[in-house]
Write a structure and sequence with these properties.
heterodimer, A: alpha+beta, outer membrane lipoprotein receptor (LolB), chain A, 14 strands, extended, B: mainly alpha, Rna Polymerase Sigma Factor, Chain: A, 8 helices, about 0% strand
Chain lengths: ~300, ~180
């Protein structure tokens, strides 16, 4: 047998999965994907609720300031004022802009610019995030816009995911114990780790409002649990409510910016409905893992 | 065209599309199975490895950032999994030695992996090669991976890979020729 021939013989080697094996592996793989998606909902929720987290940060900072002397940047704004205002929140809307940092290329697809997420919150426990991301294939320079909508109802532990481009909808359930809305956590379980090294950023005009800024930096001992290394928060000097929040990397580049906060405006219940809109095809929700999975069968 | 298709599949997969995952699975299942069989020549182990490769791949969708080809990525995953399994089995007492040739005189009717007789014979012969040589041959001929990529995967020089390929083919030829001669006697 010559060298060419043996190479051809090896190349022709072929094994195929039998139907039973194929079915079993695919069942397991698809169930794993559903679980991964459930986890992703959680992650998305976490990120998109930075504004809610901001409330915690605000209070943490202000507690720290209280320890320093009771006011932010000598403006007379006390932390108790902010807590009181945050407790009154019925609804909130804001815009989250996420920078593609650090990698801007995934495969041969380039992430073009920031992702933009329109977020809404309605007490108690209703959340909505409309995410838009532009991707560009560098070879064709053709932009593609990705849109995804997450609607979460923490009262029934369900989430509806809508894909407006494919017109598909899927309803997912999540663990009732995870995670509580940080807005509630703030008031029911005040943060234990108070950043004592918060720096004043002074005041500046944001959207024609006088805002007071503060900077938190992640500590080496991990007592600063928020994402990013630096968090700059800005509160309205008059209303004591959030105006802007920026989550930054250690080098100062912005990872997330939360702006355009509007509090206590009436929001229609339909925005938070778990019913798929007309024209959407409902895809199968995640299945409960059966007892005869491969791993358990081993 | 294939590359573009894979790029779309990757993108859709990353955004959580079940259809994309199914397409990837259907597209690369048998290809990976052939690669893994060439490396381990053990039906049960190959099935486990294939399963693990796809499950791991699926679970990585959230943080999936693949710059190279999907085929190459999955091949590397499969190869790494084969190495792990073989290494684990070496340290496991009383285990099946996958380095030893496993030959079947006939195909049991309930075999979960379907193949022709010639493929079985080649896999039987391949498993007699040292693992590194087997890996080079399988990756180059079955996965169409370039030798320099294999060198990177094996963390050796390209000339070493060429040597492994050449010696591996020589030995494979002698094993197969020996069988042919034995079979004709």
């Amino acid at each position: 047998m010559g060298p060419d021939k043996i190479e051809n013989v090896v190349k022709k080697m072929s094994f195929k999965a039998g139907p039973e094996m194929n079915q079993q592996i695919w069942a397991d793989v698809s169930s794993k994907q559903e679980r991964a998606q459930e986890r992703r909902i959680t992650m998305n929720t976490r990120i998109a609720r930075f504004a809610a987290v901001a409330a915690i940060i605000t209070i943490a900072v202000l507690i720290g300031i209280y320890l320093f002397g009771g006011s932010i940047g000598r403006t007379g704004v006390a932390w108790a004022d902010v807590v009181r205002e945050m407790q009154q929140i019925r609804t909130a809307t804001w815009t989250e802009i996420g920078e593609p940092s650090p990698p801007k290329i995934e495969g041969t697809i380039r992430i073009a610019g920031s992702h933009i997420r329109q977020c809404a919150y309605k007490a108690p426990g209703h959340e909505r995030q409309d995410t838009t991301q532009v991707l560009i294939d560098p070879r064709t320079e053709q932009p593609t816009e990705f849109k995804l909508i997450h609607i979460i109802d923490r009262n029934v532990c369900k989430a509806l995911i809508l894909n407006p481009q494919e017109k598909t909808a899927s309803v997912h359930s999540f663990d009732p114990g995870f995670p509580q809305n940080p807005l509630y956590d703030v008031f029911l379980n005040p943060p234990e780790n108070i950043p004592s090294d918060a720096q004043s950023l002074g005041t500046k005009q944001i959207d024609n409002r006088q805002a007071i800024g503060f900077r938190l930096q992640k500590k080496d001992d991990g007592t600063y649990p928020w994402s990013g290394d630096i968090t700059d928060i800005w509160v309205d000097a008059k209303t004591r409510l959030l105006v802007m929040l920026e989550i930054k990397a250690a080098d100062g580049s912005c990872l997330f910016r939360l702006t355009d906060f509007v509090f206590n405006e009436d929001l229609d219940d339909s925005l938070f409905s778990l019913e798929p809109p007309p024209g959407y095809t409902q895809t199968a929700p995640p299945q409960i893992r059966s007892a005869t999975t491969r791993e358990e069968g081993k | 065209m294939i590359e573009i298709e894979d790029e779309l599949l990757k993108r859709k997969f990353k955004s959580g599309s079940k259809d994309a995952l199914h397409c990837i699975y259907e597209k690369y299942r048998d290809y990976l199975l052939t690669l893994v069989m060439a490396l381990v020549n053990n039906d049960n182990l190959a099935e486990d490895i294939l399963h693990d490769v796809f499950v791991t791949f699926t679970q990585s969708s959230g943080k999936f950032r693949l710059c190279g080809s999907l085929k190459g990525y999955l091949s590397a995953c499969a190869v790494n999994r084969c190495r792990d399994e073989l290494r684990a089995r070496k340290h496991r007492p009383l285990s099946l030695d996958v380095d030893a040739p496993i030959q079947a005189d006939f195909d049991p009717p309930d075999r979960r992996i379907i193949s022709d007789e010639q493929s079985r014979q080649i896999a039987d012969a391949m498993v007699q090669l040292p693992y590194e040589q087997r890996e080079v041959i399988a990756l180059h001929l079955n996965a169409a991976m370039k030798l320099r990529h294999i060198a990177r995967l094996q963390n050796v020089s390209v000339s070493t890979v060429k040597g492994r390929y050449r010696y591996g083919l020589q030995k494979l030829r002698s094993v197969l020729n020996g069988r042919l001669e034995n079979g004709t006697r």
